[in-house]
Task: structure prediction
Amino acid sequence: MADNIEAIQKSIKKYIAIGALLIFFSGLTVALSYWELPTHSLNILVGMILATIKAALVALIFMHLNHERSVIYKILVFTVVLAVVLFVLFVLAHDDPLTFSGFYSPVEQ
Amino acid sequence: MDIPYTVHARPDTGLYNAKIGIWLFLASEVMLFGGLFSAYIFLRVGADYPWPVHDLDVTLGFINTVVLIASSVTVVMAWACLKLRKFGWYRINMAITVLCAAVFMFNKTLEYKAKFAHYAVKLTDGTLLTGHLPHGYQIKFGDVTELELSVPVKNSAVTADPVGYVLPLIDGEAPKFKTEDGQEIALDSKSFASLAASALEKAKAANKGSASIKLVSATPLKFIAKPSEIFGYTATTLTFRDGTTATGKLTDDKMTLEVDGVDARGVAQSEKSLAFDHRYLGEEWQKAFVANRDHHIAKFEKDYPTRDKARSATLQKESLFFKLHSATPPAAGEAHGDKHGAEAHAPAEGGHGEAHGHHPTVVLEKKDITFFSNFTPKLNTYYAIYFTLTGLHGAHVVIGALVLAYFLCFDNKRLKQDPEHLANRVEVGGLFWHFVDLVWIFLFPLLYLL
Amino acid sequence: MSAAATSHDHAHDHSHDDHAHDHHEQSFVWKYIFSSDHKTIGMQYGLTGLIFLLFGFFLMLLMRWSIAYPGVPVPAIETIRSIPGICDLFEAMFGRWLNADGSLNGELYNMLGAMHGTIMVFFGIVPLGFAAFGNFVMPLQIGTIDMAFPRLNMMSYWFFFISCVLMMYSFFVGTGPVQTGWTMYSPLATTTSMGVTSVWSHGHTWWLTAMVFNISASLLGSVNFIATIINLRTKGMAWMKMPFFCWAMFVTAFLLLLAFPPLEVAAILQLSDRVFGSSFYLPTGLMEGGKHLDISGGGSPLLYQHLFWFLAHPEVYVLILPAFAILTDIIPCNARRPLWGYKSMVYSVLTLGFLSFLVWAHHMYLTGMGTMMSTYFQITTVLISVPSVILLTCLMVSLWGGSIRFNTQMLFASAFLPMFGIGGLTGLPLAFSFIDLALHDTYYVIGHFHYVVAPGTIFALFAGVYHWFPKITGRFMNDKLGKWHFWPSLLGMNLVFAPMFIQGMAGFHRRWYDGGKYFENTSGFSHWSTTLTHKIGAFFGFDIPDNMLSLNIVMSVGAFILALGQVPFIINFWFSIKGGKKTTSDNPWDATTMEWATPTPPPHGNFLFDPVAHRGPYEYSVPGHGTDFYPQWESEPGKPETKPAADKVLAHH
Result:
């Protein structure tokens, strides 16, 4: 944690710059969402990558995760692993990649 | 007796208590929103209808994004200023943060309000009509002379409660009723209670499960009710939510809808959608629809010759979700300009309100309607998860803003005596606030854009 | 650790300013009701938990009656209905659903079943095991003065209290409490009685609201536990010197912290389905009573099951880990032997905690997931049995070569080992999807998890009550009454749950309110156990038929014995508070962990001196040491730590 005065003084400018960058990325996300890629999944992928970058900036800079104590990292790594498990297994349990036995078929309209 | 490490960090962990606390709380919040996002994925993967994309107000959403990011910057600045003991700047930054939260919630209210006033009606063939109900939707029932109320002997959730569920729906003055004994009463809670008590005694004596009370009205009654206010009806009976049935005649259950959109994506042959039946929008609109559809298909074929038309959700939406911008069909040639292509991106409820006169009005028959709802969680799983996610996020915004406002307004004593402690508190509150911002960073593209 | 020491001094510098506060006489309300002291909150949780255990048990007795004697009026029903005061309460909660002749029907049975599960899990065992023992003992064992966030701790209890009130209120609303099992599966749970006048007259709405409060309480509690263990360990209390009790509570708190939010999501979405008419869990085209429901559809019932079991499997470990926690204090203390394999236990419990999040869909084999995912969940499920077995084995080996004191808590603790073993081993077949398909929702499953939590966890909880009672009150519980409590309980538990395995493999479904009376096969064949029952019955002059249904009678007799067995406990508990034998020392069991270094009962602020952990927590029978125990807080052999706390010294200046 940036506890000494000089470090904090320096970081103020950084915060504003990151804020501007975040707004820029948000605009980019909106613009890219109107640009039709070959499949919509690609659009989602691009949008999610941008969102992840933004989220990482907020977490690292604003929430000071770029220099945090190890206890916090341990808690968060554990949590993030479980959240990913939650995402992945939910979908896999229904669209089994081995047998394609899931009840969802690609939407045909 | 003081709890150690409330202000200064424990040397071996390097953390003060509240910081561990907030990170643990955020970990649990990650799982909360993780659960919601996996529900989102699950519902989206399994949706049996075209998942709405760009259907919400993107402009408003983008403004809110900017507002939240700005507040995130100011809250971290507030903490930094407090650390540097620049109290004036701390106050300014904190005030901006709370103000941003207010702006965010104001925008949210605008967004929700527009949704509640906007309706979608699903027809039997799968067509979805969107629009407004200028008079609401009411079922009118007339010629009622007899009410049958049922009071179960055992305490149960459904028991006759005519004062709560029947009388308010009568069109006009409540008349006097005649009981089976020939007694004439004005129905109110007191008279009904004594009526029910005597009926219950009879039922118990006869060993029946419920007591039935018949009331005859001197003059024929009329009922006007919203569908949510009653339990169900047929052509000759009306059942109220308390189980009471009225015998009479259904006079009107048609729905008057100002149509602003025809979504034919659920229909096999879109031009034959029920919406273009002669009773409803009619042939002229059908022509406009077909022209618009073919225009977009041709454009798509020209722009992306190698792509599969059936797999483009955007094309499906542009060609089959037809927006109506005038009360009468546009003249041929005007119907499809690039204007429509651009406006297909506009939010579905955009431009309503002042534009009521600019939409054709149809009167839908009940037998053609399978389902209708305003744009609330009931409409489909997309709006259900949209309201849940944004609603919970909104609740977090409000709580976070209240906490920050408390630090700003009511923690001045600490500011003077123990600014280090206040800085810790602001840091902890700020961490929560950043998390709220972080959730929005994912919410915005997932719900508004993609 | 020298750095820690300096900051300790600093912390005490701080406390001088507020020293005057110590002498404030707190009023009764602030001391016992809205208390922020971890010990009082622990006791509040403990009493509430015990009352709910008793209540949940009572619900089970009614169910057992209906299973053994379907259609026969509940005994003494007329007496209950004539007792003034109780009769109205009974009538409003249960009586109004009974058949005219006073016998149970399926509707009431379903309510009892759902509420038995809910109350036992969320209102009985978790509050008692985790919140009560954790709150009372954990801060003492790590040598701190209170939890990290005392006011949040108080809030946690009062959230829990609100949730208790709401849950009990659901008995009184129009439709009565939920009838759809403690799992509350949609769409049934969402659509039953959807047409009632108002959503608030449906018990399900109250169930969900109560659960939202219960979950919030658990979250507050677990944040507090973890922060306390991380940051408030006293000097010398390194991670690997921490009693296993605290490790188990630490992992349990993590399970609650991370597993409960998805259940909160599940509850919120189900509430939305019911109150706002959304279709999260309702598939397209759902019909009820031959009528299409007025819903949009498009949701999936499986979503609910995933969210629910993502919580509910870790929840199983939330139920069992506090039991292990308690035993790791009681077994070494009464065997006078160090805990065997402390480190392997710590690593096992951490592994267990992590793995418990990865196994949830083994509750859902019947939903027909694909081969790969089914394989995955079978593997993880079998894997998780490894750390569980390590924990159990370590406890068993700890007994080896000990000179065991068979006091009441040790009896309960030693009964736990085989009972939990049976529960765990019978779970192994259920880990395999092909066996589970046959046994799903049969009494086999009921037998399995009840062996884990009833003679398992609940025995450990009883052991904990006997063990820490002297610390809380300064008086022992009566040992003779304790044995009168233990033996009938052990007999009753086994009579209730062992026949379930036989019935389950015979295909008895768990939700038959009549115990299978109307199914031909249930009375069609016999088994050695039923023949035995028949013969024993004949010996005593009862005519018990030689078929599977007779086991219902065995189980219900077992439940009755179990009920009788609790009477000595209730008497013992209340009378010992004022009338038990007084303790003569602060460490009556000659234990080594730090809670025994405090005065009895521990005052606000806990320790009279600055506790320092000089050694590991299980130093029993150390060779060359004078006594057979070597407490953590003693600095030199035989010399108790008497250096007063810094502020106490200053007070004399």
